[in-house]
Amino acid sequence: MKSRQSVRASPLSYNIQINKRRLLRDLNAVSRIGIGDRGSVTRLVFSIKELRSRQFLIHQMRQIGLQIHIDRIGNIFGRLDGANAKAPALLVGSHLDTVIHGGKFDGTMGVIAALEAVRILKEQKLVLQSPVEVVCFVGEESSRFGYSTLGSSLVAGEIRAKDLAHAADAQGTKLEDILASMGIYRNNLRSMSRDPSTIRAYLELHIEQGPILEAKKKPIGIVTSIAAPTRFRVVLTGQADHSGTTPMEMRKDALVAASEFIVALEKICRRYSRMEKGRVVGTVGAISIEPGVINAIPGKAELSVDIRSIAAEAKRRVVRLVQARIREIARRRKIQVKILPLREEDPVPLDKWLIHLLKECCEMRNIAYEIMPSGAGHDAMQMAKVTPAGMLFIPSRRGISHSPLEWSEPEDICLGAQLLLDSVIRVANETT
Ligand code: GLV
Ligand code: MN
Ligand code: MN
Q1: Distance in Å, CA 315 to ligand 3 centroid
Q2: In angstroms, rounded to a whole number, what is the distance separating the alpha carbons of residues 248 and 144?
Q3: Percent of the chain topping pLDDT 70
Q4: What structural domains does the chain harbor?
Q5: Is residue 101 predicted with pLDDT exceeding 90?
Q6: Fewer CB in a 10 Å sphere around the end CB: N or C, the chain?
Q7: How much is the pTM?
Q8: Are strands 132-137 and 336-344 parallel, antiparallel or unpaired?
Q9: Cα–Cα distance between 279 and 310 in angstroms, integer?
Q10: What gap in Å lies between CA 143 and CA 286, rounded to an integer?
Q11: Does any ligand 1 atom lie closer than 6 A to the CB of residue 376?
Q12: What are the pLDDT digits (tens) for 295-319?
């Protein structure tokens, strides 16, 4: 364990404040890119809207005068040099892509708050010891390809070729084909990773996306660990047939088998929530059927399955039970089943030094905080595999996220951004 020495410059001794109006203005500007019905935001990875949001960020970074580096997949790094230009950089950021009909804050707030933190450092001519890089990772959301934290996984060297094999969008476009168009192939995935010795630490500010902070009336969460998903697709193939002439007992209806499976998945996860220490949650979030017409028995059903927990062993057991169940249902109904793995990851603990440092930052401003795990996935879970990673949460109204109803109060956003700035100053000024 490396010992770390503070250079004894607390953020408050600089008394440096973020510019709240500018932060909220930029957040609004990004939210307008991809705005849709009922204030929803849609910026799927590699869509025109998502590319435009990345251009907005690059423009802002240029205005500030950051050194910009964009890697082959499009991860953006905007660097502000430190007193020691050769020191490893503190990375701070999140993602700009969204789910379909998502909200304005998931990911975006973390990127824009990081941008504001670095902008104010530059304006105030405050030179920290280590360089600081604002980072926007590509494709954190799994909504398009079923594959999450794409950009940060590449940076961390955490992508396995076999994980990409079944990643495709609803139109059948394969993630591998898109990556190939960028010169990223199965055999050079590793070459995309960044040398960990160039990274000091990673910090990410994010909305909670859950109900805890609101319920406990705490404005800040400090994250201890991140639940990681096991994801797979289930393809059920029965027999498409005439809906009027086929007797009920002769049918091989793939959708009915899928329905039985979805209910079984819910039951297993509920039972496990009661039995195990770690909660296990399971979701079928997407389903497609063929032929999908009123007068034909569905011959094929394809489902996406997402199972998550903070407890690795509990999750593994639930995955085994769920997969055994779908095989049993298919056997009984004389339907074929294929289980196509997408990704299997273990829950990730965040760095103890950073948890402590974030606590101190809150205490210095007399801010109440909650120490808590994250049920949602984040880029921090990939970065934590190669560098100390820390995360701050702010409350989400009614805990809602991945929805147009996602909302966080401007006051909380500004407080989160201020604490992010405070922690950036602390981390970048500490010597190892
Ligand atoms: C990311 O938002 C995820 O947890 O799916
Ligand atoms: Mn999300
Ligand atoms: Mn997010």
Answers
A1: 22
A2: 36
A3: 95
A4: 13-227+347-428 (3.40.630.10), 228-344 (3.30.70.360)
A5: yes
A6: N
A7: 0.93
A8: unpaired
A9: 7
A10: 9
A11: yes
A12: 999 999 999 999 999 999 999 999 9
